[in-house]
UniProtKB/TrEMBL annotation:
This is Thiamine-monophosphate kinase. Mg(2+) 1 binds at D46, D123. Pathway: Cofactor biosynthesis; thiamine diphosphate biosynthesis; thiamine diphosphate from thiamine phosphate: step 1/1. Mg(2+) 5 binds at D221. GO terms for molecular function: ATP binding; magnesium ion binding; thiamine-phosphate kinase activity. Reaction mechanism of ThiL seems to utilize a direct, inline transfer of the gamma-phosphate of ATP to TMP rather than a phosphorylated enzyme intermediate. It catalyses: thiamine phosphate + ATP = thiamine diphosphate + ADP. Substrate binds at H53, E268, F324. Residues 27-140 form the PurM-like N-terminal domain.
Amino acid sequence: MLRDEFDFITKIKPKIAHQPSLKKGIGDDAAVFEGNSMFDELICMDTMVEGVHFTKETMAPFMIGYKALAVNISDIAAMGGVPTYYLVSIAIPNDWDEKELKEIYEGMKSLGDKYSVDLIGGDTVSSKQGLIITVTVCGKIQKESSLYRSNASPGDFVFLIGEVGGSAAGLELLLKHGLHYPYSNQEKQLIEAHQYPIPQIEAGKLLASSKQRISLNDISDGLASEANEIAEASNVTLYIDYDKIPRNSFIETYSEEKQKQWILFGGEDYQLIGTIPKAFYSEINQTFNQNGIQFTIIGEVSSGDAEVYLINNHAKQILPKKGFNHFNKGE
């Protein structure tokens, strides 16, 4: 049985590219290839599987559609791009009816309308067990503006856009009680964070427009996992101060142990983590303040092995590349 999706992806990554227009293939949030004289093209894909990413007890059909598109638009945000088109491949089992399927597409349309993204095609097939929905999103970015994970350098600041921990907390509530439980207002906020993530498109665009050397990654599998991806891609060491990580305010009534698990390893917050040159901090901080976007410095980059250290209570420890992994249920 396959044990580690990240190791598998590394093994199947092509050693050479046949198309000279390809600028970035496997190994970032989206692939990049040359478009016209002004823009590069972006393309990314994500799949959601019933029983793995959702059930009918955790998400209604409209929510499934919304989130299936949102997670892909978040990948475009992590490249600093603008989404333009999307395609949908859906495998349908017998226990899903036409009304539910229409609601899935209505969920996608609601988010697509918000970002002016057009549905242009896809495929519809049957499934023997479980609904499977795969969304491909295309986007564009001005040339030489892509925010690769490999852009981090010693001396940079590590930053976070937004707050983390809310989605994992919301999922835990849904798995325990289901969709129709009489949740408190606080619990509803956590559930919404899981069901309706908001892609950080504006933040990505602001970072890309700066033309600075910035690395960026969206938080899908967990802050620890995404930070390690930047460290590995850039061959640097990241130091993250746990106390500086902005957490969703609605998780603060839970135990510190639960909060730490959700913040570092929960995932599906779809916020952005990245690095910037220290000299650029004041300028970008002012830009984000003016646009009402939460921007927080949470650590620094140093030379060394491709590792991430967590600083907590005046002690440092390795922050493992642990989080959501489709083929390792022990983590």
